Amino acid sequence: MTDARGSTGPHGEAPARHTPGTPCWVSLMVHGLAATEEFYGALFGWEFRPGPQQLGPYVRALLDGREVAGIGQLPPDRHLPIAWTPYFASQNTDLTAETARSCGGTIGVGPLDAADAGRLAIGSDPSGAVFGIWQAAAHLGTAVSGMPGTPAWNELLTFETASVAKFYRAVFGYEEEPVVSADFDYVALHLGGRPVAGVHGLGQALPRDRGPHWVTYFQVADVDDALDQLVHLGGHVLKPVHDTAHGRVAAVADPEGARFALLQPAG
Length: 267
Known about the structure:
Layout: E1 23-30, H1 33-44, E2 47-50, E3 58-63, E4 66-73, E5 84-89, H2 93-102, E6 106-114, E7 118-124, E8 130-136, E9 151-158, H3 161-172, E10 175-179, E11 185-191, E12 194-201, E13 213-219, H4 223-232, E14 236-244, E15 247-253, E16 259-265
Parallel strand pairs: 1-4, 5-8, 9-12, 13-16
Antiparallel strand pairs: 1-5, 2-3, 3-4, 6-7, 7-8, 9-13, 10-11, 11-12, 14-15, 15-16
Helix pairs in contact: 2-3
Organism: Streptomyces olindensis
Protein name: VOC family protein
Region (Disordered): 1-20
C-alpha cells in the first residue's frame, strides 16, 4: 500500500495531470445525497460544491478548497450496490473502454462528456468489479493527497488475482508484483516501478453478498477516533482495527452500506 498518485508536491498537492493508469478520482452514488454529505462531512471534514450534473445531482467533496472525491444521487428506480468507485486516468477514454471490452470487461455507462470537466466511462472487469475511466479536461481529478480525509489507496477484493490482474495489465499497462506467500494471494499493480493499486484474491472468503469490488482507503489522523465518530454517525465497523506494514487499518461501511477502509499511516 502506498500513495495512489504520482509524486506529490511539498504540501501534498497532486501533480498537474495524473499519469495514465493511476487512480485519479473516487466517486460514490447513493440514494440519500444530503444525508451522505452530512456523514462524510462530519467524518472527514469535507465541504461540498455542485459538480457536473450529467448523471443527476452530483457534488464534489473538498478539503481546504481542493477536490478529493465526488458523490452523486442515484435515480429512485436504480437499485445498484452502493459502492465507492475508483476512476483510472486515461488519455483516451473511448480507446481504453474499447480495450476493456475486448479483454472481457463490460462498459455500462459512456463514454460520455461530463460538461467541460472531462470524458468518462464506467465499466466492470471480467469478475464483475466496477471501475471508472477518466480523461481529464478542466477537472484533473483528486487535487490533494497525503493528509487526513484524502484517498490513500485502492484495492480490488476478488476471487483470485491471476486472471483479473491480467485484465488490468492489458487495459492500463500495469506491471505486476505478486506477494510471494503460500496462503496470501496478492498482486501489487505498478506503473513506472511505483505501486498504484492492489489486487487481493480472497477465494471463498469473499463476501457472497457483495462479490468482487474495489475498496478505497481514506487516510485518517487517528483510526480509533475516526471509528468512534463513524459509529456515532450511523456507520458500521466490518473489520476492527488491525495493524499492517503500512499502518492501522479498519474496514467500515457508511449508513447506506458503501464499504471503504480507514488508514492511519505507520510512523
